[in-house]
Protein backbone atom coordinates (compact mmCIF):
# COMPACT_ATOMS: atom_id res chain seq x y z
CA UNK A 1 0.00 0.00 0.00
CA UNK A 2 1.48 3.34 -1.05
CA UNK A 3 1.31 6.60 0.84
CA UNK A 4 2.25 5.36 4.30
CA UNK A 5 3.31 7.82 6.98
CA UNK A 6 4.62 7.58 10.54
CA UNK A 7 3.53 8.94 13.88
CA UNK A 8 5.38 8.50 17.16
CA UNK A 9 3.55 7.46 20.30
CA UNK A 10 4.96 6.80 23.76
CA UNK A 11 4.37 3.29 25.02
CA UNK A 12 5.91 1.60 28.04
CA UNK A 13 8.14 4.65 28.54
CA UNK A 14 9.61 4.50 25.04
CA UNK A 15 8.93 6.29 21.75
CA UNK A 16 7.36 3.91 19.25
CA UNK A 17 7.00 4.73 15.56
CA UNK A 18 3.68 3.62 14.04
CA UNK A 19 3.33 3.09 10.29
CA UNK A 20 -0.10 4.13 9.02
CA UNK A 21 -2.04 5.17 5.93
CA UNK A 22 -5.21 7.21 5.49
CA UNK A 23 -7.77 6.24 2.86
CA UNK A 24 -10.22 8.70 1.29
CA UNK A 25 -9.08 11.26 3.83
CA UNK A 26 -10.43 14.09 1.70
CA UNK A 27 -14.01 13.13 2.60
CA UNK A 28 -13.81 14.50 6.13
CA UNK A 29 -17.57 14.12 6.76
CA UNK A 30 -17.59 10.38 6.03
CA UNK A 31 -17.51 7.78 8.82
CA UNK A 32 -14.04 6.55 9.74
CA UNK A 33 -13.18 2.83 9.79
CA UNK A 34 -9.98 1.73 11.54
CA UNK A 35 -8.53 -1.56 10.25
CA UNK A 36 -6.81 -3.82 12.82
CA UNK A 37 -4.62 -6.51 11.28
CA UNK A 38 -4.09 -10.17 12.12
CA UNK A 39 -1.26 -11.74 14.13
CA UNK A 40 1.14 -11.68 11.17
CA UNK A 41 -0.38 -8.68 9.39
CA UNK A 42 0.69 -5.15 8.58
CA UNK A 43 -0.38 -2.17 6.49
CA UNK A 44 0.88 -3.75 3.28
CA UNK A 45 -0.43 -7.24 4.03
CA UNK A 46 -4.01 -5.95 3.77
CA UNK A 47 -3.16 -5.32 0.09
CA UNK A 48 -6.01 -3.48 -1.68
CA UNK A 49 -8.90 -4.66 0.51
CA UNK A 50 -9.16 -1.54 2.75
CA UNK A 51 -9.13 0.78 -0.28
CA UNK A 52 -11.80 -1.29 -2.01
CA UNK A 53 -13.85 -1.40 1.18
CA UNK A 54 -13.69 2.36 1.68
CA UNK A 55 -14.47 3.15 -1.95
CA UNK A 56 -17.51 0.86 -2.05
CA UNK A 57 -18.89 2.01 1.31
CA UNK A 58 -18.04 5.70 0.89
CA UNK A 59 -16.13 5.82 4.18
CA UNK A 60 -12.69 6.99 5.28
CA UNK A 61 -10.13 4.46 6.48
CA UNK A 62 -7.08 4.23 8.68
CA UNK A 63 -4.73 1.27 8.29
CA UNK A 64 -1.75 0.87 10.62
CA UNK A 65 0.89 -1.63 11.67
CA UNK A 66 1.02 -2.49 15.35
CA UNK A 67 4.37 -2.21 17.17
CA UNK A 68 6.54 -5.10 16.03
CA UNK A 69 4.95 -5.29 12.57
CA UNK A 70 5.35 -3.82 9.11
CA UNK A 71 7.45 -0.66 9.16
CA UNK A 72 6.55 0.18 12.77
CA UNK A 73 9.16 -0.05 15.52
CA UNK A 74 10.12 -3.74 15.75
CA UNK A 75 9.98 -5.88 18.85
CA UNK A 76 13.34 -6.17 20.60
CA UNK A 77 14.92 -9.59 20.03
CA UNK A 78 14.78 -10.42 23.75
CA UNK A 79 11.24 -9.12 24.29
CA UNK A 80 8.65 -11.79 25.07
CA UNK A 81 4.99 -10.91 24.93
CA UNK A 82 2.84 -11.75 27.96
CA UNK A 83 -0.64 -13.36 27.88
CA UNK A 84 -2.19 -9.89 28.20
CA UNK A 85 -0.55 -8.65 24.98
CA UNK A 86 -3.87 -8.03 23.21
CA UNK A 87 -5.27 -6.23 26.26
CA UNK A 88 -2.24 -3.95 26.20
CA UNK A 89 -2.77 -3.18 22.53
CA UNK A 90 -6.40 -2.28 23.21
CA UNK A 91 -5.87 -0.43 26.48
CA UNK A 92 -2.55 1.32 25.79
CA UNK A 93 -1.50 1.39 22.13
CA UNK A 94 -4.84 2.20 20.51
CA UNK A 95 -5.72 5.08 22.87
CA UNK A 96 -2.25 6.57 22.36
CA UNK A 97 -2.52 6.24 18.58
CA UNK A 98 -6.05 7.65 18.45
CA UNK A 99 -4.99 10.58 20.63
CA UNK A 100 -2.00 11.30 18.37
CA UNK A 101 -4.16 11.16 15.22
CA UNK A 102 -7.17 12.93 16.80
CA UNK A 103 -9.57 10.02 16.30
CA UNK A 104 -12.77 9.80 18.32
CA UNK A 105 -15.50 7.10 18.25
CA UNK A 106 -14.42 5.24 15.09
CA UNK A 107 -15.82 2.13 13.49
CA UNK A 108 -13.45 -0.80 14.00
CA UNK A 109 -12.72 -3.57 11.48
CA UNK A 110 -10.50 -6.25 12.98
CA UNK A 111 -9.19 -9.56 11.68
CA UNK A 112 -8.07 -12.48 13.91
CA UNK A 113 -5.93 -11.03 16.74
CA UNK A 114 -6.98 -7.63 15.43
CA UNK A 115 -10.61 -8.68 15.89
CA UNK A 116 -9.91 -9.62 19.49
CA UNK A 117 -8.20 -6.27 20.05
CA UNK A 118 -11.20 -4.50 18.51
CA UNK A 119 -13.54 -6.29 20.93
CA UNK A 120 -11.32 -5.45 23.89
CA UNK A 121 -11.18 -1.79 22.88
CA UNK A 122 -14.95 -1.64 22.38
CA UNK A 123 -15.48 -3.07 25.86
CA UNK A 124 -13.83 -0.02 27.47
CA UNK A 125 -14.06 2.81 24.93
CA UNK A 126 -16.72 4.44 22.78
CA UNK A 127 -16.90 3.11 19.21
CA UNK A 128 -19.54 3.53 16.53
CA UNK A 129 -19.51 -0.24 15.99
CA UNK A 130 -17.12 -3.15 15.50
CA UNK A 131 -16.80 -5.60 12.61
CA UNK A 132 -14.66 -8.59 13.56
CA UNK A 133 -13.44 -11.36 11.25
CA UNK A 134 -12.31 -14.68 12.76
CA UNK A 135 -11.76 -13.15 16.21
CA UNK A 136 -10.48 -15.15 19.18
CA UNK A 137 -12.34 -15.10 22.50
CA UNK A 138 -10.52 -18.12 23.92
CA UNK A 139 -7.80 -20.54 22.88
CA UNK A 140 -8.87 -23.67 21.01
CA UNK A 141 -6.85 -26.81 20.29
CA UNK A 142 -7.35 -26.17 16.58
CA UNK A 143 -5.63 -22.79 16.90
CA UNK A 144 -2.64 -24.23 18.76
CA UNK A 145 -2.22 -27.02 16.21
CA UNK A 146 -2.27 -24.60 13.28
CA UNK A 147 0.13 -22.22 14.98
CA UNK A 148 2.50 -25.11 15.67
CA UNK A 149 2.32 -25.83 11.94
CA UNK A 150 3.16 -22.21 11.17
CA UNK A 151 6.24 -22.47 13.40
CA UNK A 152 7.49 -25.48 11.48
CA UNK A 153 6.84 -23.69 8.19
CA UNK A 154 8.82 -20.66 9.37
CA UNK A 155 11.75 -22.87 10.33
CA UNK A 156 11.78 -25.12 7.27
CA UNK A 157 10.31 -23.22 4.29
CA UNK A 158 10.58 -19.80 2.66
CA UNK A 159 7.89 -18.33 4.91
CA UNK A 160 10.38 -15.92 6.51
CA UNK A 161 11.39 -14.58 3.08
CA UNK A 162 7.76 -14.17 2.07
CA UNK A 163 6.94 -12.30 5.30
CA UNK A 164 9.92 -10.01 4.66
CA UNK A 165 7.88 -8.41 1.87
CA UNK A 166 5.50 -7.07 4.52
CA UNK A 167 7.71 -6.55 7.59
CA UNK A 168 11.03 -4.78 8.05
CA UNK A 169 11.84 -7.40 10.70
CA UNK A 170 9.97 -10.65 10.00
CA UNK A 171 11.43 -12.30 13.11
CA UNK A 172 9.90 -9.54 15.22
CA UNK A 173 6.47 -10.14 13.73
CA UNK A 174 6.56 -13.93 13.63
CA UNK A 175 8.13 -14.82 16.95
CA UNK A 176 6.19 -12.21 18.91
CA UNK A 177 2.93 -13.76 17.72
CA UNK A 178 3.99 -17.40 17.59
CA UNK A 179 5.82 -17.39 20.91
CA UNK A 180 2.92 -16.20 23.02
CA UNK A 181 0.27 -18.29 21.27
CA UNK A 182 2.34 -21.43 21.94
CA UNK A 183 3.17 -20.46 25.53
CA UNK A 184 1.34 -22.81 27.94
CA UNK A 185 0.50 -19.76 30.06
CA UNK A 186 -1.65 -18.46 27.21
CA UNK A 187 -3.97 -21.51 27.09
CA UNK A 188 -6.26 -20.01 29.74
CA UNK A 189 -6.55 -16.62 27.98
CA UNK A 190 -10.23 -15.67 27.66
CA UNK A 191 -12.04 -12.39 26.91
CA UNK A 192 -15.68 -13.46 27.28
CA UNK A 193 -16.19 -11.22 30.33
CA UNK A 194 -14.95 -8.20 28.39
CA UNK A 195 -17.11 -8.97 25.35
CA UNK A 196 -20.18 -9.22 27.56
CA UNK A 197 -19.68 -5.54 28.49
CA UNK A 198 -19.70 -4.20 24.93
CA UNK A 199 -22.59 -1.84 24.20
CA UNK A 200 -21.75 -0.94 20.60
CA UNK A 201 -23.28 -2.84 17.65
CA UNK A 202 -21.28 -5.86 16.48
CA UNK A 203 -20.86 -7.79 13.24
CA UNK A 204 -18.94 -11.07 13.56
CA UNK A 205 -17.76 -13.03 10.51
CA UNK A 206 -16.11 -16.44 10.23
CA UNK A 207 -15.38 -18.98 7.52
CA UNK A 208 -16.66 -22.52 7.82
CA UNK A 209 -13.19 -23.76 6.85
CA UNK A 210 -11.24 -21.58 9.30
CA UNK A 211 -8.06 -23.42 10.23
CA UNK A 212 -7.43 -21.24 13.30
CA UNK A 213 -10.79 -21.31 15.05
CA UNK A 214 -14.27 -22.82 15.11
CA UNK A 215 -17.65 -21.15 14.74
CA UNK A 216 -17.97 -21.34 18.52
CA UNK A 217 -15.88 -18.15 18.64
CA UNK A 218 -18.43 -15.89 16.92
CA UNK A 219 -21.43 -17.81 18.26
CA UNK A 220 -20.15 -17.09 21.75
CA UNK A 221 -20.14 -13.38 20.90
CA UNK A 222 -23.80 -13.62 19.93
CA UNK A 223 -24.69 -15.47 23.13
CA UNK A 224 -22.95 -12.79 25.17
CA UNK A 225 -24.32 -9.91 23.07
CA UNK A 226 -27.64 -11.15 21.59
CA UNK A 227 -27.93 -8.30 19.10
CA UNK A 228 -24.72 -9.32 17.33
CA UNK A 229 -25.07 -9.94 13.60
CA UNK A 230 -23.33 -13.13 12.44
CA UNK A 231 -22.06 -14.05 8.99
CA UNK A 232 -20.88 -17.66 8.58
CA UNK A 233 -19.28 -18.14 5.18
CA UNK A 234 -18.86 -21.41 3.24
CA UNK A 235 -15.75 -21.98 1.12
CA UNK A 236 -13.90 -19.61 3.43
CA UNK A 237 -10.84 -20.03 5.65
CA UNK A 238 -9.30 -17.79 8.31
CA UNK A 239 -9.28 -14.66 6.11
CA UNK A 240 -12.85 -13.88 4.99
CA UNK A 241 -11.78 -10.54 3.49
CA UNK A 242 -9.51 -12.47 1.10
CA UNK A 243 -11.64 -15.55 0.48
CA UNK A 244 -15.06 -13.86 0.33
CA UNK A 245 -14.49 -10.09 -0.08
CA UNK A 246 -17.80 -9.41 -1.84
CA UNK A 247 -19.81 -11.02 0.97
CA UNK A 248 -17.78 -9.27 3.67
CA UNK A 249 -18.12 -5.84 2.07
CA UNK A 250 -21.87 -6.30 1.50
CA UNK A 251 -22.40 -7.31 5.13
CA UNK A 252 -20.28 -4.41 6.39
CA UNK A 253 -22.16 -1.94 4.20
CA UNK A 254 -25.54 -3.11 5.53
CA UNK A 255 -24.20 -3.09 9.09
CA UNK A 256 -22.90 0.48 8.92
CA UNK A 257 -26.00 1.76 7.17
CA UNK A 258 -28.23 0.19 9.82
CA UNK A 259 -26.23 1.48 12.77
CA UNK A 260 -24.84 4.80 11.54
CA UNK A 261 -26.10 7.84 13.43
CA UNK A 262 -26.02 11.53 12.60
CA UNK A 263 -23.22 11.96 15.15
CA UNK A 264 -20.33 11.00 12.91
CA UNK A 265 -16.93 9.98 14.29
CA UNK A 266 -13.99 12.16 13.47
From TrEMBL:
Example GO molecular function: hydrolase activity
GO cellular component, one term: membrane
Alphabetically ordered keywords of this record: Hydrolase
Domain AB hydrolase-1: 33-251
Superkingdom of source: Bacteria
Matching InterPro entries: AB_hydrolase_1, AB_hydrolase_fold, AB_hydrolase_sf
Residues forming coiled coils: none
This protein's record includes keyword Hydrolase: yes
One Pfam family named in its UniProt record: Abhydrolase_6
PANTHER family: HYDROLASE, PUTATIVE (AFU_ORTHOLOGUE AFUA_2G14860)-RELATED (PTHR43798:SF33), MONOACYLGLYCEROL LIPASE (PTHR43798)
Name used for this protein in its record: Alpha/beta hydrolase
Biological source species: Aquincola agrisoli
Amino acid sequence: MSGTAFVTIHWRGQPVRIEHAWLRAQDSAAPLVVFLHEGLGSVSMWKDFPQRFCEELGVRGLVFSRPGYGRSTPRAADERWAPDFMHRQADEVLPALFDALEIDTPWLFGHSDGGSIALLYAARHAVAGAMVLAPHLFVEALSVTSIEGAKQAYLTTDLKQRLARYHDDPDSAFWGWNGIWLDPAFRSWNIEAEVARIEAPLLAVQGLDDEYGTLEQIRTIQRLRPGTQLLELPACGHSPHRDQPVAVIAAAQAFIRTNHTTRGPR
